[in-house]
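Chain X:
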Amino acid sequence: MTKPQVALGMEQWCWPPAFDEGRLPSPDQPYWFPRRETMDPQQRNEAVLQRIREVMGYAYERAPFYRDKWMPASQEACPPFGDYLCVGPEEVARLHGTSGTTGRPTAFAISRQDWRSIAEAQARVMWGMGVRPGDTVFIGAVFSLYMGSWGALAGAERLCTTAFPFGAGVAGQTARAVNWLAQMRPDAFYGTPSYALRISEVAQEMGTDPRDFGLRIMFFSGEPGASIPAVRRQIELAYGAEVFDCGSMAEMTPWMNLGETSGHGGMLCWQDIIYTEVVDPTTHRLVPFGGEGTPVYTHLERTSQPMIRLLSGDLTSWESGPSACGRTYPVLPRGIYGRIDDMFIVRGENIYPSAIDEVVASLAAYGGEHRIIISRTDAMDALAVQVEYGRAVAGDEQAIAAFGATAEKALQTVLGVRAKVVPVPPRTFERTDFKARRVIDERDLFRSLVDVT
């Protein structure tokens, strides 16, 4: 093990990673590692480059995958973890993975040391949001293979908070969440933006004001909502809390490596946890600050399954920083606002669902949910958005019609194509405890019918 490189200004910086697991900054100290987080970016990048070389050498020695240059279908060929596992099976402490709903599930093997490193990193980012020892952190997310809930729990425990792993996804659990939040009055909440809005809706139906929960901090991952201004405002108004966005990919856990801080202004790329590049989706070349592309990630602290230049397929834009909080990391001003494969094309225009989410969520009479339907008649694509109207206009046909017309005009301005808006009554659509899925593309059905005839 190399010695910490204090000369480079990088506190507790060595390979393999090692941390003082009992250390906590003073509560009034805004930074977990003051030098590392505020130093000149070029100086930090020099240390990161050296670390990347160490990680690559480590992975080359231990993983056939990297020696064979990114062999496809690694886990299928070498189940269950692929040939990029760099520790022995006896060192694996936790198994997580994807759901496998779109194919073979991906397995994540995490060593005991890596889980401690993950907790340290998540705690750092949560500290930057203002979470402090002694706070109570309510975790309203599914506890399953999903990494989000477990990562938030690990960070909360490392921070010496009172962790409340409440969970989500069970029938009737949202009403129970309202009762527990009102009773325990936690300081912080973690979940998806959709679920926070769902809890708010249920609370109001039960005659409870979500502001009475006393939440100070709400941090989110799993979907773009917390970086969509209109959705953020809905949550802030409902709870009276400060909202933070965070999260990259489960494969890249500690997934809070993209995380907003008290400076707001976007998610920071915590480059000394996971090195992030934003590249052109086609050429994979780095895009300059101010440009848009897809993030590519490299682990700097994982020894069990280190990912080296993992292409995310997400969509973002980045700026050089620094943040208003004083940290000198690059900033994603709009967060992760979609996936490249979520984009759809209607009459020649590239459209991302998050753009539609932003428009409808900003409407005064919006009822809380919507569906995006793409269809085709003859050779023409058609876009329709079914939008719930709020209870305030229910029964007023003139107000409902005006709501639809306003929505259509706003969508055409933003999207550049006409979208037919169909107002529907409140609570038409099922709410979710997890990630919202709002796009229905019926064009494949049209194509299949054409092929048959």
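Chain Y:
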Amino acid sequence: MRKEVLLIKLLQAILVIALQCNTLSAQKSEALTFHKDIAPIIHQNCTPCHQPGKAGPFNLITYQDVSNKADFIVYVTKTRYMPPWQADPSYQTYLNERLLTNEEIASIQTWVTQGKKEGDKKDAQSIDVPTGPYPERKPDLSFAMRSPFTISDAGKDDYRFFNIPTHLAEDTYLEAIEFVPGNKRLVHHSRIMTDTSHMVRHIEGLSANDSAIWQFNKYPPLDRFLYGWVPGNFPIFFPKGTGKKINKDVDLILNIHYAPSSVQEEDLSVINLYLAQGKIEKEVKTITITEEYILNNRFLIPKNTKPYFEAVYLLDTTIEVIAVMPHMHYLGSSFKAYAITPEKTEIPLIRINKWDFNWQTSYQFKELVQIPKGSIIKVEASYDNTAGNPANPTFPPRDVQYGWNTTSEMMNLVLYYIEK
């Protein structure tokens, strides 16, 4: 009998403790408010895109903005569709990484479940809402397209080239580059190159399908990849004491992919340049590993196949990598890049297990990644040209080769670096 009494008392004690824990947990949950708990998460990971003039289709800045989209935010964060981030964090991490923790996702869900409380606005005073590459600084130089371009209403992907003379009086160095689409709805992505020959200034609005495009083989760009932009990408920043050289009187070559449209619209995109401040000790340079470096096969993707390609680039000097940007089109399946030192040590650069053409970015390292002379940089990429690939732009599948159009394919890795 005594044992039964003791057992009952023990169970009662356990129940009391459990109730106390639940009460404390509930009190903690009830304390979640927008200004104190949710705004820091949203402003750090969502607002950079979701604000006026940026890629997001709606704003996520104020309490009302977030409250109105709360159920949607719960879904896209729980499924990790947002914020968009392709790189595998178990392989390499980056300075511009946007990945919500499980705790942050749970906090958003709890806040919504408990009624989306706004809380005290004074808690928001210390929160900085990102508005651009430098919130307190305007671009030093801004170059718009020479005239508005009328986007076709033919309902097809359209690739166009534009020449933007800078008329710079002297060589200069950049610490950041930014592309601002003039038509957020139809500018799908862009690529900025540089030219000092001045022999392609007449290409204004030239179609990638025009036979005259082969002029680029006769007068190749000085820099084949100054900067690339897609929705979700942000300005590239170069470390203090370094800068990307822009030559005197250089022309900016802008290649823009316009999404299909059924109505005519205009675009007047802008390139913003931020000049390096202070003494430049190291010049930022670019390596672009392309299909030309593929060793295992010809770059051809036959219909109904899932081919794999390997490209290798040999370093003739020691470099320190600032950032990398991989690029493929809709048939891309996975992407991996790493360096192998002369001592056979592997240095991870980027791994994307599930490629998504719609979300590409420049991945900037937290610390410069040093790769010694004599190392090779290896790129591995797989493609899916079958009917089972929901992103395949052609049905039924057809043979695909290299090309600028999204119905063609590419395999690029761009590295921003300085020499050691």
